[in-house]
Amino acid sequence: MQKNILLIFTFLLLSELSFGQQDFRFNYNFKRLINEPNIELYKYDKTQKKYSVRKTNLEHVRGALTKISIRKDTLSVKLWPNAITPNADTPNVLSSDDNYSDFIITIPDDDNYPVINRYKGFDLPFSSTQLFAINIPLRMNLKNSTVGSEFINANISLSKIYGRTRIYQSEFVKPRTSFWGWGGFLGLGGTKNSIDKEEVGINYGFNIIGSIYKINLLVAIGFESGLSKYGKTSPFLGFGFGFDLVSVSSLGFSEK
What we know:
Elements: H1 2-15, E1 27-29, H2 31-34, E2 40-45, E3 50-55, E4 62-69, E5 74-79, E6 102-106, E7 122-141, E8 147-149, E9 153-167, E10 176-192, E11 198-212, E12 215-226, E13 233-244, E14 252-254
Parallel strand pairs: 4-14
Antiparallel strand pairs: 1-4, 1-7, 2-3, 2-6, 4-5, 5-6, 7-8, 7-9, 7-13, 9-10, 10-11, 11-12, 12-13
């Protein structure tokens, strides 16, 4: 019965992978890119219904990357809060009036450009807090140094991540995202109690997670505690993998 409950919980948790993937937005740092020569930032003018207002003084430029043109020469972005006070004498200076507005970054199509190479691409660094569904099948009991496997477990990890998205100007190569991060996890899994029988237990602890091109691997140190009156608490070192509850690769593509 307990195993069935755990299987249902695992199914419901992993089924969440299909929801919310287009809503998550990283905290990208655009400063290095858009302060290069010939790369420009334009704000959407609601009156003229086009991107026509050029912005300058781009020292604090963070936000979401929402679209990439097919030719990779235009990035659509939405900028996060900026604390610079607006000044009527300098309307083109990026300020708090521009917070959460829509912008485009225009990029010259030049193979010899110092930041952008058609084959190597260019990097956009980001940081964020992300929710993962993680599975920790391989575990070493730190009390007796025994190694075991428990594939029927489901956990949620809230992790702070740091990474980059590499965008290639070649229209045939999709953006690639990699990151590393750390956080805590909580979930359910199978464990042995004090009378050497299997039962459902609670997992909790600390994890380090890394991802290269959608492959998420993790190392975890934590505890598993049985829920019955015979339950016991055991520390473990575990190795596993993670699923993005909200995708790190939800970049959309559209024509300019």
